[in-house]
Amino acid sequence: MKRHIDLLHGKILRSLTGLALPIMATSLVQTAYNLTDMAWIGRVGSAAVAAVGAAGMYTWLSTGIVTLARMGGQVKVAHSLGEGEQKEAVEYGRGAIQLAIALALVFALTANLFAGRMIGFFGLSSDKIVGDARIYLRITCGLILFSFLNQTLTGLFTAIGDSQTPFLANCTGLVMNMILDPVLIFGLGPFPRMEAAGAAVATVTAQLAVTLVLIHRASCDTVLFDKIHLRHRTAGKYFRAILRLGVPSSLQSMLYSAISMVLTRMVASWGDAAVAVQRVGGQVECISWMTAEGFGSAMNAFTGQNYGARFYDRVKKGYGIALAVIGLWGIFTSSLLVFGAEPIFRLFIQEEQVVPIGVHYLVILGIGQMPMCEELLTVGALQGLGKTLSCSVITIVLTAARIPLAVALTGTGLGLDGIWWALTVTSIAKGLIFVMYYLWILKGLPGKENAGGRQR
């Protein structure tokens, strides 16, 4: 199978699915990555899950920071290749990688200096949980460089039409993680029992394995990476273009994480077990969330290249096909969470007093999965057009609404379930608004006769 998919001239369904399927598979592998961690740490107890869950909020926050480099680099490389400007693509690619490295070093230093205050934000009640959370934070965020490189390189590989390489790399990381998790968490063989710290070491080691595979494959690439030399200086105008596209998406992601952290603090008022439930539920939801985001990443590259080439008819047709495909996936995941809530949750936590809380969470989340999938797909398509600012405004406003909505619903007698309903209601609203907005954008694009480029 070809590593690079022709996004400009191939049949739309074949090109789009050829790029999207490995990305979706990669997302499922990354989900399995997280679920493996959660399944093993859940056997230590809900306290360990709460510790990993609290610290893990900051690894999620770091995803927003690296988006500064990844999003701008991916979109501008795709646009440049679509326009036939390979030298420009190389400059944007090099700038994105250099920016990602600098951001990783700053974030790692900050996490280690302020780990105590960062974990203290959640108001966890157990000293053991707080201590474990600090250790997990210092390991995973202190070595965040590998994660930042992986996300940025994955975006650049996707932009050039190669989604198979990130899939191969993440499969390697998954195997590494599956081997190391039980060994380091429970202390098998010569290794000591490390619990939450073991999960952190396993995660970072697996991320390093992914980085090495991506770098090796990049050294063999002849489209983009063989021309990137990191020791060369990147002109300021390329950084400015990357940041112009990356800042809105980065702020969106970081504020999304910050809002989730506020909600986690609200959840903590129901006890540490409720935090553990939120962590498990969030990881289970990744089955649909990360897969839909992966398809959105494919739409980003497909839309970016075709928009750069002025093949507007392909942009419109590609979105219609993708919307139908991801809608079916959303229906499947909704059914899975609603009708399989209890057996799924028991895979991670078996404590009888915790299970009913977890089942309620998964059922409520399940109701909003399809519109959430449509939202993530559409965000990818909009970003491919370069409209990262409008994406950010819509997402930030509706996501921020979760906090007052959660406060209102928890006061109605729903209790903790009110927070879960706030998540689902806003997911449904975002899905509807994003689809309607993008359809309106598509109406404004020229047709074949006015495109100014050769249509396919």
Summarize this entry quickly:
Helix content is 80%, strand content 0%. The chain contains 17 helices and no strands.
Word description of this protein:
The chain is an all-alpha fold. It has one domain (12-450). 80% of the residues lie in helices and 0% in strands. It contains 17 helices and no strands. Helix 10 (272-308) runs parallel beside helix 13.
| Helical amount | over 70%
How many domains comprise the coordinates?
A: 1
How far from one another are the termini?
A: 23 Å
Our estimate of the beta-strand percent is under 5%
Please tell me how large the radius of gyration is: 21 Å
Question: Ranges with pLDDT <50 over ≥5 residues?
Answer: 449-456
Largest sheet: none
Tell me how many strands there are. 0
What is the approximate shape?
A: globular
Element pattern in H and E:
HHHHHHHHHHHHHHHHH
Kindly report the oligomeric state of this protein.
Answer: single chain
- Discrete helix count: 17
Briefly note the structural class of the backbone: mainly alpha
